[in-house]
Amino acid sequence: CQAAQVQVDALAKVLSDAGPPDADALPIGIELVEPQVSADPRQAACYKRIGVAAARTEILALAQMVQARFAKTPLLYGNRYNLGLLTDSRSDAFMIWLAAYTASSDKSARKLPGRNPWTIWQYSGTLNVRAIGSAVTGDVFFGTRAQYALFRRGRTNVGLSAVQ
Fold this sequence. Notes:
The protein is of the alpha/beta class. The chain has helices at residues 4-17, 41-70, 80-86, 145-153, 158-163; strands at residues 29-31, 75-78, 95-99, 118-129, 133-141.
């Protein structure tokens, strides 16, 4: 329940402590999770008090402030349930990073409500990569090499642009 500006300021401090800004850095991801009492009772109570509509509005404000502050379009990261619950058409300006650990042939698991498609699909959390380990995530970018270059620059929602 921290205000969007407080969260953006905290992120800016973490990034400034890491060193000078990196123009080649990828866009920032904002994880969307419906708070559960078992994980964080304080967050769950706040979410219950403000409701899903206000939570969506706060998420939108946070994403807009991240975009303004860091000059790149952020990704909204989550599973299908959380993205469906916590985003709406106002979120179409932002890219989607979908966590859907299903068989690649099950395309329905990657379908989101609305018109905003995923830009990045995280399809696994258990890849075995030599020299890294056995719990590595696997991600796929939706688009061409030219669109990936646009994604890195972070000026627009390249996933939505690709399907329009």
